[in-house]
Amino acid sequence: MSEKIDILIKNANIIDPEKGTIKKGNIAISNGKFIEYDMKKSYSVNDQLDAEGYYISPGWIDSHTHIFKDVTEPRFAADLGLIPMGVTTTIDGGSSGIATWPAFKKNIVDESYLNIFYSINVSPAGQITERYPENVDPLHYDADKLRELMKIDSVHVRGLKLRYGSEVVEPFGNDVLDKTIQLADKLNCAITLHVTNPPCPMEEILPKMRPGDVICHIYQGKSSTIIDADGKVKSAVFEARERGVYFDSADARINHCYSIIKSALKQGFKPDIISTDLTKNGIFSNMCWGLPVVLSKWLNLGLSLDEVIAACTCNPAKIHHLPDGIGTFNHGAAGNATIFSVEDKEFDLKNRMGEDFHGNKLIVPQVTIINGSIRYKSLMFPL
Q: Hey, which of 145, 209, 258, 336 would disulfide with 245, CB 3.0 to 4.6 Å?
């Protein structure tokens, strides 16, 4: 009796980000999982895709979005917005706190096609609006409630989120970060730390961060940055990386600066993760658009294609300890894959710092496969 294959992708240029290889071959999915494909064997194939001339990678992970629809103002509809962008997995960046988490878990995490994970905001209300900052007063931290939440949903929660910008933390004194680190130590979890417009020099922030913590918006250009007065990447940045701290671009509309990025890349400081920090105000706009355009930007900035893909697949999967083999093509891993093309196409971006960017190589998603089901297929892809 022939072995069953639900989806067979043939003749693709397979990017294996863990190995750093690109080679032509076939990918097979059965019962929602990747399986070994032997061309000498006979199979019963339900759905076959000819990906000749296209690339395939493990499903893309957008590691920083805001998708708490119907409760928070920055939100957008995750499945509708992200799946056509080639995204199979996303991590919400602190939209919910302990007070709003039940609605987030029930209505977003449990009701989406996407694989959804999240950081919990230290503010009990989460990041409800962009009209004013969330309340991150450590007096309101609740270790017991957070511990209970992390136990209930250990599969999806990925630690704490703190926006460490002057406008957020200044009303509460100079020890908000220290108190958040103490809280994370109690909970034995990682912190994702926003550092745009920090209230103190980056050299004071970086040494405090622990192995496994993630600093997002690392290429931001407001207040203290990772570049010193002589144009050099600060030694504290490299020291943090050596210690096991990770760095996420989380570009958004205002959380990246091209002069910072270009200077850092020249000195070999590349992001561990490329993500969007996408909100309803950034989606489809020329300030961010979404993950395919952000990945394309970094490709045009000089990262290789396999580096760009690793930064949205195996890297975030390992850094955030995602389950089920997400971010890989490993045998038995959840069948998440993105088929895409790289096209010679001009595009232009403008961020909220007033900087312009021009690129000529555009990464275009063609098919999104989530847990063994085709959830999006471009009309340009062969039927």
A: 209
Q: What is the mean pLDDT of the chain?
A: 97
What are the residue ranges of CATH 2.30.40.10 in the chain? Answer: 3-57+332-343+359-377
Per-residue pLDDT tens for 208-245?
999 999 999 999 999 999 999 999 999 999 999 999 99
CATH 2.30.40.10 fits 3-57+332-343+359-377, yes or no: yes
| Separation CA 211–CA 209 (nearest Å) | 7
- Angstrom distance (rounded) from CA 55 to CA 189: 36
Q: Give per-residue pLDDT as tens, 127-154.
A: 999 999 999 999 999 999 999 999 999 9
- Report CA dihedral (152, 158, 160, 162) to the nearest 10 degrees: -140
In degrees and rounded to multiples of 5, residue 323 shows phi and psi of: -85, 180
pLDDT of 10 reads: 97
Q: Are strands 87-93 and 60-65 parallel, antiparallel or unpaired?
A: parallel
Question: Parallel, antiparallel, or unpaired: how do β-strands 115-121 and 87-93 relate?
Answer: parallel
Task: Return the pLDDT at 2.
Answer: 76
Domain with CATH 3.20.20.140 in the chain: 59-319
User: What is the reported pLDDT for 265?
Assistant: 98
The position carrying tokens 């950034």 is 282
Give the span between the Cα atoms of 158 and 174, in whole angstroms: 25
Residues 6+ apart with CB under 8 A from 293: 347, 349, 362
Q: Which amino acid does the sequence have at 136?
A: V
- The DSSP element (H or E) to which 48 belongs, if any, is strand 43-50
Give me the CATH code for the 59-319 domain, please. 3.20.20.140
